[in-house]
Amino acid sequence: MIGSPFILKEHTSVRFTMIKVMAALVPGTLAYAWYFGPGIWISLVWCSLLGIGFEAVALVIRGRPLQPALTDGSVLLTAWLLALSIPTLAPWWLYMTGMFFAVVVAKHLYGGLGQNLFNPAMVGYAALIISFPVFMTQWAAPTTLANIVPNLSDAFDLVFVGGSITPDAYTSATVLDSLKTATRGGHTVLDAFAQPIHGLIAGKGMELVAIMYLFGGLFMISNRLITWHIPVAFLAAIALTAGVLQGLDPAHHAGPLFHMMAGGSMLGAFFIATDPVTACTTPRGKLIFAGLAGFLTVIIRTFGGYPDGVAFSILILNTAAPFIDAFSQPRVFGHAKGVK
Amino acid sequence: MASETRDIIINGLWKQNPGVVQILGMCPTLAVSTSLVNGLSLGLATAVVMALSNTAAALVSRLVPPAVRIPIYILIIATLVTMVDLLMHAYLLQLYLVLGIYIPLIVVNCIVLARVEAYASKHGAFYSFLDGLMMGLGLSLVLAVLGGMREIFGKGLLLSGIDLALGPAANAYVIHVLPGYQGLLLSILPPGAFIGLGLLIAARNRIEQVRALPRRSASLQPQQAT
Q1: Within a 10 A sphere around the Cβ of A54, how many other Cβ atoms?
Q2: Where are the domains of chain B?
């Protein structure tokens, strides 16, 4: 790409962007490791290796040069996002299946970076939650609640060998799971919030991780990696939808703040819905795209069969993004309004 | 004569394959192909209906007023499907219960009417029979391969449910392709049908591409020489 003379080339390259996005993920990941044990490092490294491996194989089969695609960092970011979206301490083949769907099916079958219709990490997540619901709901418990906190070598054994510790000792339901179980069982939201997994606002530990994602996201906005439209519209739609539902039936629906902090809301708002390839690109289009995704997220969480709706809502809106873009073209400077 | 027969066979099984080239009759293809046995059974039932309906339509095509030909063809197809439906109900009850609504739905499978309208109404009875049979077998092939793929990836098995067609003794034929396999549920669920069919279409297009390559370069050679 040839930039104007005042734009430094390396500051607009794919690799530089990817490195900055990954830097924005660091605080959230550190908080994750602090609150949920070191298992996240195993899944991060394993997903990255798998990502590079699948990417290399796909490139060889497609007859493309290896070096540019492998060093642009996009596959590492996909691996990182997938590792943060799925439970740690799961069997190794779970990550392998997820990365296969993310890199081979979602990315390379559609033509590689920039050609993919769907967000690769979310395709991996969706394939896994549909195929292996049991493994995908065994999340590592916050270290303050777990009977056993697997250290790094325990975690390695659990992932690759299948350790002798029973999952009950180190896993727990997420706060969204416990909310769903409670409200489906005829209990109220307050009963669900009385569970130990519930922290101040949402999941214990997870709420802090979400705040760290928020800081990372603000860093990306201030560095102009993303614009404010998608995160603001996404979170506002989540808050609005959750607020309306809570207003209608306060006993059985959690409030706006809970839904903004629970599950994948923050990660989705700043890191996943903002994917420049699969999201809308026009300013109005971004607002519509993210607003609908946020609305669907709460609807799927509340009425759907799966615990979290971030991945599904973003994937659904990915299919609509080209149409939203086509109908939200901004007025070109010098042209009258409404004239194409 | 022989070349006409050969063309019909190649068209039905490969060149104009209903499943991966014409992409007709997708409803049963996607819904029933959860296992090799299910896919193949419905495919064969469709093939029987197609062969017979093509023959019948070819025999009566001169008597049918063009304005009302579609309702008459549908009546013929519906009669034949009812026969197949009752026969399967009588002799293959277990399989009949598994395939359920998709057997009566063969009536509205567009590939059946498409062949009657596009081929049988313009050709003789023998070729129409052959065309219906080959198109049906082409569809069966796709259904069987797709069903087999979804079964292997979804359950790690092949030929599961064969006892429904051949009796309980046939359970011994079930192949455990991947023992101790967790099962990719996605493959059995509806998305697996779409992804699997997409892969089959891609594979067929790829084979055609590769086959076309040497021929193209061969035809280019003399031009470069002159």
Answers
A1: 23
A2: 2-215
